[in-house]
Amino acid sequence: MIWRPRRAHLVDLLRQGRESLRKVPLQRRVALLTSFAVAVAVAVTGLAGYFTLRLSLYRSLDSELTEVAMALSDPVAGDIRRIGGLTQFTLQAGNFSVAVVRADGQVFFVPGDEVHLEVGSEELAVARLHNGVSARSGVASDGRPYRIVTVPLAALDNYALVLGRPLNVTNDILSSLWIVLLLFGATGVVLAGAAGTAVARSGLRPVRQLTAAVEHVAQTDDLTPITVTASGDVARLADSFNRMLSTLGSSRERQQRLIADAGHELRTPLTSLRTNIELLAADARSHMLGDADRNEILGDVSAQFAEFTSLIKDLVQLARDDQVSAAPEPIDLRDVITAALERARRRAPKGLKFDVELSPLYVMGEADDLERAVTNLLDNAVKWSPPGGTVRIYLEGDRLRVADQGPGITEADLPHVFDRFYRADTARNTPGTGLGLSIVAQTIQRHGGWIQAGRSAQGGAVFTVQLPGTTTLEDLDTLAPTGF
């Protein structure tokens, strides 16, 4: 029942550690992680090297002690009481200690030797089994660490020879190695931290440039693209940021142009409307206008209101096309054209004829927007067609052509017919806002197509629209995505 609170506490500590790490700057975080990784690698390598060398030294010492014990086993077996005639001076010269252990636990030492090995169960086991060799680390009577090797006496059953050598030299070597590993490990961690800091500073330089550019845009509203000398993910991020700036710049330019053009175009009907209303207000006090003049001014006011309403409607449509997300769906373009044609016929003067030929064409798009675009094209053709003229509407393949028999478009006006608020010299006195064809072009482009203006064979204007589509509804799924 205790491990659950401890586990929850550990989870909380880990979560707090992650949150604290997230607050550390990225450059410092990279340096810390690099130093930590190097420290772990150095620690693992150092420990592996230390224990490998320790094992190698112990094996070498055990091998040497075993050979000496085997060489002493026969002389010692001949004189157990005096340990084969070994003396204290002999032991000091060889820097080892000797003892003989009997299976019943009795131990024999070299006469006069002041340092005695402490015999344990491993040594007794070798004496009783009279087989095998044991090697272990132990202590002597003086408290110093010894490496102790035990071999059975071949000439005597139930006896074993115990040989030990102090571990001072071996432990000194290992201690020196441990100090070297710590010093070089600490140096490696410091160097790794410095290298990590340098690499992080160099690698994050493009990110800092990008951050500075974002802050500059936020403070100054300057959308100039930035230059980042980098590659890989940072380069793609910078490229995406520059594309975003370009898009924002284009959007701002369109917005400013729309506001400027709208302000210019709204000023004229508002000025005229205000003048007429002021005349009517003055006449209400002085009664200076006759009925005919008053009716004419009221007619002008009504026409100006209609022009003003049409202009506001077109401006709203342009703003919607710039901002509203699209929801395309499969459309039979013939239905769109037919619906637009019904509107045009209702508004067309008597005697105007429509020559219509529609082949199947299915597209992905927004029916309302396409119908409005086609309606604008037809209204434009109706406006410029002479009495008794013919408007030709042909849908063949992926091309829609709308042609009239009006005066046509001059070469000087052709490049500008789709510009917002553009009015040719011949159209200055005709009704309209100058936004209809701009709305058409914008709608067609949003649907992945294009529109061109030219002169028809009959001398009037012809507008050619291309929309990506298929002749059957079943093939529409294979169509590549459009501009939505």
Report on the structure:
The chain is an alpha+beta fold. Among the domains are: 73-168, 2-Layer Sandwich (Beta-Lactamase), CATH 3.30.450; 233-315, Helix Hairpins, CATH 1.10.287; 325-478, Heat Shock Protein 90, CATH 3.30.565.10. It has helices at residues 3-23, 26-78, 88-94, 121-129, 168-203, 205-220, 233-286, 291-323, 333-347, 367-384, 436-446, and strands at residues 97-102, 107-109, 134-139, 145-152, 159-166, 329-332, 353-358, 362-365, 390-396, 399-403, 450-455, 461-466. The strands form 3 sheets. Strands 2-1-5-4-3 form a 5-stranded antiparallel sheet. Helix 9 (333-347) runs parallel beside helix 10 (367-384) and helix 10 (367-384) packs antiparallel against helix 11. The protein is rod-shaped and about 155 Å long. The protein starts with a helix and ends in an 18-residue tail after the last strand. The mean pLDDT is 80.
